[in-house]
User: Which sequence fits this backbone?
């Protein structure tokens, strides 16, 4: 059974810092992996999608990497801003099931 | 493109009642998935609809049922509501089973 773990559960950093959020999964047979952002009480915004054949994806100040063999993904945020404060969720898609399996998220707070 | 839309935004019901939540997928998407997100947790997969049929189902009781219409919009029905059904219900759409999923803003259900 696929399980997704995100560490740390919460993170507080001063504005301008570069930071890394971690995601691990137990079954390496994934179709793709998505990183999402969720603001309090809101829906999920897709940040990056990495296909199983890819090693990384970049969008602006965000860079996500994927190491399927070790069951790990990282989300790198460069030059963090207060507007980056949110909960970041990692989810894997097993393909054959067609559904996403989520971690519990990392709550990020960027202080001005 | 309006993206994924959900209605209503908020809903308050009492135990034992029934509720219907609605979702319109992103333009061009044919697959709709429903997730339940309890406070402080990652979303949990309820079921997925494709071509008006339930294709996959998560570990949820039969009180949770759904429907997909010919225009790909979908409904989630929950019967005999329990206090534990209080959560944010998220709808996601995609083009195909393993493709990137886009989420709506969610419906906040409170059961008293």
Assistant:
């Amino acid at each position: 059974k696929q399980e997704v773990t995100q560490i740390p559960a919460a993170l507080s950093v001063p504005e301008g810092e570069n930071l890394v959020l971690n995601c691990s999964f137990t079954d390496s047979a994934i179709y793709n992996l998505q990183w999402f952002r969720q603001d309090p009480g809101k829906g999920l915004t897709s940040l990056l999608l990495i296909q199983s054949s890819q090693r990384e994806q970049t969008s602006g100040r965000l860079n996500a990497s994927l190491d399927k063999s070790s069951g790990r993904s990282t989300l790198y945020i460069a030059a963090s801003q207060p507007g980056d404060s949110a909960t970041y969720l990692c989810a894997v898609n097993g393909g054959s099931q067609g559904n996403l399996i989520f971690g519990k998220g990392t709550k990020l707070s960027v202080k001005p | 493109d309006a993206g994924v839309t959900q209605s209503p935004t908020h809903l308050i019901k009492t135990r034992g009642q029934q509720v219907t939540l609605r979702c319109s997928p992103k333009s061009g998407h044919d697959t709709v998935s429903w997730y339940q997100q309890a406070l402080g947790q990652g979303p949990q997969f309820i079921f997925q609809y494709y071509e008006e049929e339930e294709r996959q189902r998560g570990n949820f009781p039969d009180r949770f049922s759904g429907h997909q219409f010919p225009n790909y919009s979908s409904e989630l029905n929950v019967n005999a509501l329990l206090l534990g059904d209080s959560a944010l219900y998220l709808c996601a759409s995609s083009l195909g089973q393993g493709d990137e999923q886009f989420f709506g803003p969610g419906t906040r259900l409170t059961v008293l």
The two ends of chain A are 41 Å apart (CA to CA). The first strand of chain A starts at residue 4 and ends at 7.
